[in-house]
């Protein structure tokens, strides 16, 4: 499941393997090996991949079928309750 998910996520953002590798700080060969199912990334790299694509590690691993379009994670630390509510309203308006 991982090879298909990472390929799908990469293509959905119109990234080449080279571009994704650059964002992750790995070689193009690493990305190619992941997509071909030859190797799996480390746990630290899996977290980095999920951050780049704004999806959960469970989604990437095929344990959860809800993609980033189904949920959104926003870092709101330090924001007031009012500002968080305002962000939620903006999101609701965009739907």
From TrEMBL:
Gene3D superfamilies with a match to the protein in the record: lambda repressor-like DNA-binding domains
PROSITE patterns according to UniProt: HTH_CROC1
GO molecular function term, any single one: DNA binding
InterPro entries: Cro/C1-type_HTH, Lambda_DNA-bd_dom_sf
Keywords: DNA-binding
One Pfam family here: HTH_3
Domain HTH cro/C1-type as annotated: residue spans: 6-60
Protein name, as recorded: DNA-binding XRE family transcriptional regulator
Source species of the chain: Harryflintia acetispora
Lineage: Bacteria, Bacillati, Bacillota, Clostridia, Eubacteriales
């Amino acid at each position: 499941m991982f090879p298909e998910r990472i390929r799908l996520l990469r293509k959905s953002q119109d990234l080449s393997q080279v571009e994704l590798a650059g964002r992750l700080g790995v070689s193009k060969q690493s990305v190619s090996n992941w997509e071909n199912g030859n190797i799996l990334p480390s746990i630290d790299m899996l977290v980095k991949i999920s951050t780049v694509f704004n999806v959960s590690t469970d989604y990437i691993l095929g344990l959860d079928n809800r993609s980033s379009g189904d949920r959104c994670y926003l870092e709101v630390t330090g924001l007031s309750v009012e500002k968080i509510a305002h962000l939620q309203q903006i999101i609701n308006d965009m739907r």
